[in-house]
Amino acid sequence: MKAIIPVAGAGTKLRPHTYTQPKALIPIAGKTILSFIVDQLRDAGIQEFIFIVGYLGEKIQDYVKENYPDLTTHFVFQNERQGTGHAIELTRNIVGNDEVFVALGDTICEYDVKEVVNSEYSMLGIKKVDDPRNFGVASVGEDGFIEQVVEKPAIPKSNMALVGLYKIKETHFLFECLHHLFAQDIRTFGEYNLTDALDCMIKRGAKFQAFKVKNWFDCGKKETLLESNATLLKKFGGNTEGNHCYKDTIIIPPVSIAPGCDISNAIIGPHVAIGANTSIKHSIVRDSIIGSYTTLYEVVLDNSLIGSDASVRGLSRSLNIGDNTEIDFG
């Protein structure tokens, strides 16, 4: 089985951070979004990964090669973003007839990965939501098999949203349906959508079983990213460098502090993730994500998302600033 991870999106809802950093490499709870996904699938036994890259794709390549040298990896460039269906079609020659597990590059979920990977059926991940109109929606029969999937329906027949996890056994069937979309120019909201290809497969007799995820962490915009960071820190307990000694500093767990940080005269936490080699002095930081090689001096930060190589000085409350930024409130 091969894993396909589409990470070509521009991440417009997380700007300014995604001007300089792919969304999949945004840090959360001490790891990147991408590493959560790859680690789950690798631990379930998948060793071959196809990354569909586009905007800032070289950074994805560099990150994967540096952090996962043991994996077999392929990188496919989606130069024109024409939808998830178009992205998956680009992997046809690499996939061949192998089964695939598709995990969208901004999807962190809790579920029994091994059970799904080893299932005898194709499977789609679902989660009950209050308003399914902004998601792909699955109609599930009493037998647990999916009867229909629709992308962002105006009048949903179900409140079961597709979470972006797809285990597909009949890949030849998948690529036939993708070809059908292109041949008939079937688009949803102007794009060739994977959901439409899956519905085509169902209509032609493919059987998909639904599996419910325990938790679905939204990493698509600042507010939900910070909420997901807090939840994951609570779940995994955070981490700090083993032999750290932060002078005159109070740590209120859970927090995650990467190696090489210089912290003094500060209060850190709860729910704070700090990247490597960051300096924080005479500051209070809570409910925030701070990038690597960043400097904070005499600031009070709450519910903030600060990029890498940034510098913030003076008093502040809530910020959302990207990489290579300098702010002086003095």
Automatic annotation (TrEMBL):
GO molecular function, one term: transferase activity
Domain Nucleotidyl transferase: 2-234
Annotated CDD domains: NTP_transferase
Top-rank lineage group of the source organism: Bacteria
Keywords of the record: Transferase
Protein name as catalogued: NTP transferase domain-containing protein
Protein's organism: Sediminibacterium roseum
Lineage of producing organism: Bacteria, Pseudomonadati, Bacteroidota, Chitinophagia, Chitinophagales
